[in-house]
Amino acid sequence: MRACLLLVLTVWLNTKDGSGARSSPCALPPSKWCSSLDSAFQCGVLKQCLESNFTRSHEAAEKVSLGLYYESLCPGCRQFLTLIIFPTWVLLNEIMDVELVPYGNAVERHEGQKYTFQCQHGEPECLGNMIETCVMNKSRNAFQIIYCMESSADVIKSAESCAQIYDPELNWSSIMTCVNGDQGNQLMHLNAVKTASLVPSHQYVPWVTINGKHTEDLQEKAMSSLFTLVCSMYQGPKPEACGGSHRRFKSYCHNV
Ligand SMILES: *[C@@H]1O[C@H](CO)[C@@H](O)[C@H](O)[C@H]1NC(C)=O
Ligand SMILES: *[C@@H]1O[C@H](CO)[C@@H](O)[C@H](O)[C@H]1NC(C)=O
Ligand SMILES: *[C@@H]1O[C@H](CO)[C@@H](O)[C@H](O)[C@H]1NC(C)=O
């Protein structure tokens, strides 16, 4: 009866060309391990990837979506993002989406074809906001990179090495081209528009929306117990991390 996992692996091995998949090293970051059967096998997580794909396909409920309106150098934003939102997302990303909008209390002016921006914590903050905006446009691991930047001693100096760590394939000069060019300018304008269209309009940062809504109660709960809030708002079967009865699919194989 220990057959089932072995069967999966054996079938898998038999579909290989016999060159020995085990010898191919796993050279991918964890976020990419499950992206194909090959990579899952090479990285030694085939079983976990199949399970998590199975779980995902059985959880149809809408994810809880958290919107964070913030500024890259605002101390309270950095604490909330790095100490609460990111760790919660690591545990609950299967039932939770995070949308980051770095802009906050900045002010925009339209000058010719371009927009100019003034940021609450000066030029460096405008640069930090812009780097994070371009990273979100170009990397699938943007949240990890932004977390790394915000949790480091120097948000801006750390940016390139954070990108190298969390998205080795990302071309850093394409980020800087975005930062210094029209694309970044347009994307930052969109952040300004999103921020300006908040209802009610924001009075401070970090400013939180849950499923697009902001109330004082939601803000308070998000900042004091985000994990509990997300677990309680999720409409689907609660994942194990929430302490729910819904267990993840697990394939144990027992001796008889
Ligand atoms: C998991 O699902 C994704 C998206 O449906 C798919 O591309 C990937 O190959 C699957 N991974 C495994 C290990 O089955
Ligand atoms: C990146 O920005 C361009 C506009 O400059 C937009 O068309 C595209 O959809 C964005 N991509 C992502 C992944 O946000
Ligand atoms: C990286 O991006 C820059 C600027 O967009 C581009 O000129 C260069 O060809 C890219 N390099 C690679 C290896 O894709």
TrEMBL record:
Gene Ontology biological-process entries: immune system process
Pfam families for this protein: GILT, SapA
Protein location: Secreted; Lysosome
Keyword NADP among record annotations: no
Signal peptide range: 1-21
Residue ranges constituting the Saposin A-type domain according to the UniProt record: 19-59
Keyword Glycoprotein on entry: yes
EC number in record: 1.8.-.-
UniProt keywords, alphabetically: Disulfide bond, Glycoprotein, Immunity, Lysosome, Oxidoreductase, Redox-active center, Secreted, Signal
GO molecular function, one term: oxidoreductase activity, acting on a sulfur group of donors, disulfide as acceptor
EC class (word): oxidoreductase
GO cellular component, one term: extracellular region
Family: Belongs to the GILT family.
Complexes and interactors: Dimer; disulfide-linked.
Task performed by this protein: Lysosomal thiol reductase that can reduce protein disulfide bonds. Facilitates the complete unfolding of proteins destined for lysosomal degradation. Plays an important role in antigen processing.
Protein name from the UniProt record: Gamma-interferon-inducible lysosomal thiol reductase
